[in-house]
Amino acid sequence: MYKYTQFDTDFVHQRNAQFRAQIERRLNGSLTEDEFKPLRLMNGLYLQLHAYMLRVAIPYGTLNGGQMRQLAMIAERWDKGYGHFTTRQNIQFNWPKLPDVADILDALGDVEMHAIQTSGNTIRNVTADHFAGAAADELEDPRPYAELIRQWSTDHPEFQFLPRKFKIALSGSPRDRAVTRAHDIGLRMVKRQGVIGFEVIVGGGLGRTPMIGKVIREFIPPAELLPYLEAIVSVWNLLGRRDNKYKARIKITVHEHGIDKIKALVEERFALLRDSFQGNDQRLLEQIRTGFAPPAFKTGPLKTFEQRYGFDRVFRDWVDTNTHPHRNNAYAIVSISLKTPGKTPGDASAEQMRVMADIAERYGHDELRVSHEQNLILPHVHKSDLEAVHKAMQGAGLGTANIGLISDIIACPGMDYCALATARSIPIAQEIATHFDALKAEHDIGVLKVKISGCINACGHHHIGHIGILGLDRAGVENYQITLGGDATETAAIGDRAGPGFSADEIVPAIDRLVAAYLTHRIDASEIFLQTYRRVGLAPFKQALYPTAARGKQANAA
Amino acid sequence: MVRPFIDKVVTANDLREGDVVYLTETNNWTRHLSEAEVLQDEATAKARLTAGSGDVLKIIGAYLADVTAAETGPEPRHFREEFRRTGPSNYFHGKQESAENV
Fold first, then answer.
1. Mutation target among B31, B90, B96 for the A interface, most CBs of A within 10 A
2. Exposed, middle or buried: residue A386 (CB in 10 Å: 0-12, 13-18, 19+)?
3. Which of A222, A163, A154 is nearest to A187 (CA)?
4. Among candidates A390, A375, A372, which has minimal Cα distance to A317?
């Protein structure tokens, strides 16, 4: 893992000391809230419905056991004993008190973590494929580049007052697990004539105007990556709509000016910037790379694992559902589900965090990842250790075998916590998960991505869920709108709105009808919901959602 | 036609703890909606909001929230305010938790 240099340590400590003094000045009245707000946002501190919320970055989703244990300590000492993992590989604490925040940040700094640029109009936490450095299908680990981008973007003097927030995601695999097409910049690693580089996608995003990103450069070699990124952000920084917050994101800039014009401007700027880096970024990249050397993989017999897999059905289900192919055949990537039906998606208690830290240290080469799907990952587990890992997980309520299934739901905090929300998300996720869990039908239903947002800002990624649910306030009542056919992967697509929304009581039966329609129309169990939807289209699902309307139409036609 | 005025309370979050607070008749901030001062006309509401907002060492983000007067004190009219005076629905945290510990 990347280790902080003395520069990194000093920078974080200095920033924490500055913010400690800023908090003191706010509390004694030397700073007004208007003056303090941008300062607290630069350090990840929001005010939500019931309390402050501190958003802590987990750069490219990577953390070790010691860091996880520190998060557990923070949760218990200064919060309410749990943390919430988010779709942008952050962890949020929902109940910090303002006078404690400086101590929390110092405790984070002690384990090389921080909350810098997790809010505000800056370049946010850089996210990456949660299987990076482990996936069998990967070209190369994208995290050294992610770390380089993190260092370049942190406190970048030109980019501290951007028109709006700016999000960058990287993937090192042709399989896109980092949602690169729904980011301001998505970087997809590609190989050309044996040389690694990146396809650069720009102007993707969800929120009130969802857009799939467009390719601005088919191939950029690593040596030119930073100047090219700087050119993009720099062009948008001048062109972006500062007059209208809702039109300020780069997706609108690209939409309004057209990709060709933006590309021309970026290339022009790039030509100017290209030489100014003078290879310093490449020397830094080489240093960073040493921090991402693969672990010393162990060898050992797999016979016991294979036997257990053969006769223990619960274990087999978990292995089949929650592990993915590792680039080392004797290893597996383990996904730890934070989606036990009835629980809050993405939440882990301090106790669970400690269990995961222990397991990572003992069986996982001391590495953990946070996925944008709000689960945790043990990227490197030798197959002979899977049984012990599974057992330890089960004992801590972390053994649910539902990765990628209907109860593995992304849900934003919604109106249970968020000041921007228009409706709740968590209870809807809980009800859908418990409903299908009780039917014991989810393995038969197969891969089905349900994503729920409690407002139009789409933190719950509803637009790119196979089934997306958007919670709205309709005349003072919570109402849930359904979108269908969204896709977060390399075949990214924005879902189609199905029709009028449903009340909180009607939404689970509505999802039930959608699933029944899918089971009726699928060719066989190998065709997943999204494939069936793409083959048959919206009509049969619409009919299932609105049977009365469909009957009325038929009567009129007759 | 003049639209009838809907009763209001001044609400905010506590500066130090972030907890939801309401302005009382005696210019204090209470954690309980039932103890809030109910404002029954536009001019008073505006004046009380201005007064409350000035209390910058105690609170943050003051605004007016619609309420309905009831025997036990004001009741929220919108579900957002219902959550603010109760706490989240996934855990027994926030005001509902403190109420039990009284």
1. B90
2. buried
3. A222
4. A390
Tell me which residues of chain B, numbers 71 to 90, contact chain A at a CB-CB cutoff of 8 Å: 77-80, 83-84, 87-90
The span from the CA of A484 to the CA of A123, in Å, is: 31
Over chain A, what is the mean pLDDT? 96
Task: Please choose, from the candidates A215, A133, A146, A212, the residue with its C-alpha nearest in 3D space to the C-alpha of residue A173.
Answer: A133
Q: Tell me yes or no: is domain A304-394 CATH 3.90.480.20.
A: yes
Per CATH, A304-394 and A410-557 having the same topology is answered: no
Domain ranges within chain A, ordered by starting residue: 6-110, 142-290, 304-394, 410-557
Tokens 């989810």 belong to residue: A442
From A97, A344, A476, residue closest to B78, measured CB to CB: A476
Rounded Cα distance between A266 and A247, Å, is: 20
pLDDT band at B102 (very low <50, low <70, confident <90, very high): very low
Structure confidence at residue B55 as a pLDDT band (50, 70, 90)? very high
Superfamily of domain A142-290: Sulfite Reductase Hemoprotein, domain 1 (3.30.413.10)
Arithmetic mean of pLDDT, A473-486: 97
Chain B CA closest to residue A46: B18
ipTM of the complex: 0.96
Query: Considering Cα of A25, then A26, then A32, then A34, what sign does the dihedral take?
Result: positive
Residues of A (386-425) whose Cβ lies below 8 Å from B: 415-417, 424
- pLDDT tens digits, A120-137: 999 999 999 999 999 999
Q: Is A69 helix (H, G, I), strand (E, B) or coil?
A: helix
**Residues paired with A287 in a beta bridge:** none
Q: Number of residue pairs across A and B with CB atoms under 8 Å?
A: 75
Question: Chain B contact for A193, CB < 8 A?
Answer: no
Q: What is the pTM of this model?
A: 0.96
